[in-house]
């Protein structure tokens, strides 16, 4: 089996690529994720769908050819993962942040990202304290079916999968093709914008765009660039902000390219024998700063890989993209997400409280579930991990319900 273990500093390069790509797509802006929770803009969903549709067959195809990967499907302890996903979704809807997008937002120069990072440390510390209690142990041990993917199981630390019922790696590759086809079909027919009509290739062939979609593109471009740096009419920033990153048709070349870049970068990371996860860094920091002798901190210290390096890379990649490509760097000016301002006004203290509290709850849920949007949803989806799919469903349910309540429909 072909294997290779990269030095930890390579995580900075991997994080840089993902941070720059996701920032260009708009994931670092909390308004993007708040609109996802409101189900108005399904950009992140399309990112995951397209990334998995491209990368999953590549990874399982290489595995069938004898390439070894650092498999990391999260364990499926049904109650803890489900409840963690639900809390994650609530916190996401309030704050507009994932664990990884906090570093992207900091790279964009967003002031409320500072409060989000502090809230993330509090949430991670809270789970560290709860983990060693009877309640915490019950959550992670009840209905725990281990690390399971569609068609196989995995034992921690092993470079191979244990297929179900005599299946072979080639069979898993064939399953991944069907899986990828389902994901691409959903992306193909699901309009990016709520109320939109075009999300598939036939929109490109017809060359049509509705007035509604034109308005959504303009509105998206305005909130992505608000407070950012100026750019001229012939710049890359204009194309990114006013055409590519606001495109309603998610199966056009730009959207598919970015999704593929993100997905294939995660595949490369797993080949290099590391994992793509963002929330573990918060537990590592919280443990080192506040709770070094707690049981959960000791587990994190022992198992931490290049996650802190990849988070540094994510920040640097987002800063590079926001400064030189998209020109969205806000220089830490006051910048309240429009959906938040419409509901709660422009009071920066209230926004800081929402950013801090929402991210604390989101991070608490992430650590309870042992993964976040990176480790569970993105990496999990690429590996066909059942825990990642279950976590993702609970996140979506919770964020949509919360958004309807918090932002009043």
Automatic annotation (TrEMBL):
Location (main, coarse): membrane
TM spans (from-to): 6-27, 48-71, 77-100, 112-131, 172-190, 253-276, 312-329, 350-369, 389-407
Keyword DNA-binding: no
InterPro entries xref list: Sulf_transp_TsuA/YedE
Location in the cell: Cell inner membrane
Gene Ontology cellular component list: plasma membrane
Membrane topology: Multi-pass membrane protein
Keywords: Cell inner membrane, Cell membrane, Membrane, Transmembrane, Transmembrane helix, Transport
Keyword Ribonucleoprotein in annotation: no
Matches recorded under Pfam families: Sulf_transp (PF04143)
The protein's name: Transporter
Record organism: Sulfurisphaera javensis
């Amino acid at each position: 089996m072909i294997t290779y273990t990269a030095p930890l500093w390579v995580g900075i390069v991997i994080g840089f690529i993902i941070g720059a790509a996701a920032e260009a797509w708009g994931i670092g802006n909390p308004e993007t994720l708040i609109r996802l929770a409101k189900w108005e803009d399904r950009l992140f969903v399309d990112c995951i769908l397209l990334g998995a549709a491209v990368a999953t067959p590549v990874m399982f195809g290489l595995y069938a050819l004898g390439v070894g990967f650092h498999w990391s499907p999260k364990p499926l302890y049904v109650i803890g993962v489900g409840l963690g996903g639900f809390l994650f979704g609530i916190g996401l809807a309030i704050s507009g942040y994932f664990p990884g997008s906090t570093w992207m937002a900091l790279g964009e120069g967003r002031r409320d990202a500072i409060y989000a990072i502090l809230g993330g440390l509090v949430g991670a510390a809270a789970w560290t304290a709860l983990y060693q209690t009877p309640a915490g142990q019950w959550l992670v041990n009840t209905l725990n079916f281990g690390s399971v993917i569609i068609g196989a199981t995995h034992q921690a630390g092993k470079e191979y999968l244990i297929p179900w019922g005599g299946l072979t790696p080639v069979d898993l590759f064939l399953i991944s093709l069907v899986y990828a086809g389902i994901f691409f079909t959903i992306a193909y027919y699901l309009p990016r914008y709520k109320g939109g009509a075009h999300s598939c290739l036939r929109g490109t062939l017809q060359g049509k765009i509705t007035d509604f979609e034109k308005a959504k593109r303009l509105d998206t471009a305005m909130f992505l660039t608000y407070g950012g740096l100026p750019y001229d009419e012939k710049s890359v920033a204009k194309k990114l902000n006013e055409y590519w990153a606001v495109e309603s048709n998610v199966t056009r070349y730009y959207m598919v390219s970015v999704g593929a870049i993100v997905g294939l970068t995660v595949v490369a990371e797993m080949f290099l024998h590391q994992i793509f996860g963002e929330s573990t860094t918060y537990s590592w920091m919280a443990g080192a700063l506040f709770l070094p002798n707690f049981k959960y901190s000791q587990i994190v210290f022992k198992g931490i890989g290049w996650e802190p390096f990849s988070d540094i890379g994510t920040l640097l990649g987002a800063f590079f993209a926001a400064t030189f490509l998209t020109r969205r760097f806000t220089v830490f000016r006051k910048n309240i997400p429009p959906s938040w301002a419409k509901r709660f006004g422009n009071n920066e203290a209230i926004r800081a409280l929402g950013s801090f509290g929402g991210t604390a709850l989101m991070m608490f849920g992430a650590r309870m579930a042992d993964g976040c949007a990176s480790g569970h949803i993105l990496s999990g989806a690429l590996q066909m991990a059942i825990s990642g799919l279950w976590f993702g469903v609970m996140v979506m349910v919770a964020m949509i319900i919360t958004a309807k309540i918090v932002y009043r429909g």
